[in-house]
Amino acid sequence: MNIQLMLHRHHRHHLHPPVVTLAPPPSTPSINTTTKADNRSGTFRTAIIIFVPMSLLLVLSTLAIAFFRLRKSEDVQKRLDSGGPSKMAWTTVVSKLFKFSRHGGLHHADEDASQSVDSLRFDFATIRVATNDFSNANKLGQGGFGWVYKGKLSNGQEIAVKRLGDCSTQGEVEFKNEIVLMSRLQHKNLVRLLGFCMEGKERLLIYEFVPNASLDRFIFDPIKRLLLNWETRYKIILGIARGLLYLHEDSQLRIIHHDLKGGNILLDSAMNPKIADFGMARLFVVDQSRGNTKRIVGTYGYMPPEYAKFGQFSVKTDVFSFGVLILEIVSGKKNGSSVNAGNIEHLLSYAWKKWREGKALSLIDQTLRSGSNSDKIRCIHIGLLCVQENVAKRPTMASIVLMLTSFSMSLPLPSKPGFLLESSTNSNLSFPGQFPSWTIRSNQSSHHPINISINEASITEPYPR
Questions:
Q1: End-to-end alpha-carbon separation of the chain, Å?
Q2: Domain Protein kinase, which positions (predicted)?
Q3: Which CATH number fits domain 85-209: 3.30.200.20, 3.40.1410.10, 3.90.1150.10, 1.20.1640.10?
Q4: According to the model, what pLDDT value does residue 300 have?
Q5: What is the pLDDT of residue 414?
Q6: Do the beta carbons of residue 148 and residue 161 sit within 8 Å?
């Protein structure tokens, strides 16, 4: 009986297994997504609050420093332009605060600039020995700042030494100007600055020695001009043009020479021209096209009327001076003296009159018997284009070099030159005889004509003279 009951239960268990009720899994705590999102948002806001003010502070600080430096440089330049004394030349600001690069524009301090200048420093004892104690036998000539001496260094290198006389405030400015600019310029048609000396009251500039003196000693001398045939004169014209092109467009600085004339063009042993005397040069920012000044410096007969009258200058200032030089080289006549016997008539008005009359051949130096007359006429044509009264019509130096080297290039007709000087009866700005180099000061606005007065001796004479 019991056995039957047990078999019966076993049989039921296999046919109908017991139902097992599973307990639900333990509940997992729910994640509060809202809280996490709020945390992330708060962190982002905190980062913004910290980062943005710091960025703005950095930008404002950089702008403030740049503004301060620019204002400091401009203040120095204004003091110089107004003719007031300044203990620090604007070129010192250029060398220590800024680096002007043709491709990079305005950059911050070029720390190598002052080191480069310092590497050119000579001690006075060395130069005194080289010039035999500045003996009279070694004098090459006298310039606006003092005498120029020939010397020889211990290694046998010949040098030319410009020794400043009375070192006025202006002299100090031009002295520093030339050091800073010339130390950064290298071109075969620029005279090379070898060094300088500043000891006590002594101020010396040391250049490479250029044996054939200056261009004006040849073209205005009835004997020496015979040494300059047309081939040589053309080479001189082209060399000056290439030197100016380098200054205006191809160097790491953008320079306006401001006192281009025959006395500032030196000739080496092969009669290659070298532009000298950068005491009056102006430094331009890369994208600067023109400027104004109340301090007019330069040489009458070579400066354009917009500069002499209003103090307005640009690269076209040098272009005008170059045009005068071309006409002087081709004609053998100086713009600062009468070129028409019996009448007080200066070179630009004379050349323009002959051009309009179709008698440009009569302008050519009679000693130039060789060479193509058409090439000489072309140079006169280019010269007249350079001295046009309308500044915008004057060509750039790049165009001038192309005109001089590409004879297939057609030239536009020139318009009236800038007659700064016509005759003693027709112009209030006419001066008979040769023009000295004068400095004119005016406190008037650059938008009004400047009253001309001769206040001091030349400060623009080159070496040698």
A1: 153
A2: 134-407
A3: 3.30.200.20
A4: 80
A5: 96
A6: yes
Per-residue pLDDT, 118: 72
| Structure token pair of residue 17 | 């297994």
Sketch the domain layout of the chain as residue ranges. Answer: 85-209, 216-441
Asked whether 190 and 291 are in contact (CB, 8 A), the reply is no
Count Cβ atoms within 10 A of the Cβ of residue 245 and give its class: 0-12 exposed, 13-18 middle, 19 or more buried. Answer: buried
**Pairing relationship of beta strands 437-441 and 295-299 according to DSSP bridges:** antiparallel
Pairwise CA distance, residues 143 & 463, whole Å: 6
Domain 216-441 has CATH 1.10.510.10: yes
The tokens describing 6, both together, are 């047990």
CB burial of residue 295 (10 Å; 0-12, 13-18, 19+): middle
Q: Name the residue with tokens 């007659």.
A: 419
Helix, strand or coil, per DSSP, at residue 347: helix
- Among residues 317, 213, 345, which one has the least CA distance to residue 221? 213
CA dihedral 71, 76, 82, 85 (to 10 degrees): 150
Active site residues: 259
390: helix, strand or coil: coil
Q: How far apart are CA 98 and CA 87, in angstroms?
A: 19
pTM of the model: 0.67
How many angstroms separate the CA atoms of 388 and 353, rounded?
14
User: Which string of DSSP letters, residue by residue, matches 22-77?
Assistant: PPPPPPPPPP-HHHHHHHHHHHHHHHHHHHHHHHHHHHHHHHHHHHHHHHHHHHHH
State residue 24's pLDDT score. 57
Residues in a beta bridge with 266: 214, 274
Angle in degrees, 0-180, between the axes of helices 230-245 and 397-405, rounded to the nearest 10: 150
DSSP letters for 113-128: HHHHHHTTB--HHHHH
The counts of H helices and E strands in the chain are 13, 15
For the chain (length 465 residues), average pLDDT per consecutive 10?
Answer: 52 51 53 56 73 84 78 49 37 40 36 64 96 94 81 95 69 79 89 92 92 94 94 98 95 86 94 88 53 63 85 90 97 80 77 95 93 95 97 97 94 87 39 38 39 31 32
Side chain identity at residue 260, one-letter code? L
Alpha carbon distance 23, 382 (integer Å)? 109
Rounded to 5 degrees, what angle do the CA atoms 216, 241, 103 make? Answer: 135
Q: What is the pLDDT of residue 40?
A: 62
- 416: tokens are 């009236």
Looking at residue 165, the DSSP 8-state letter turns out to be S
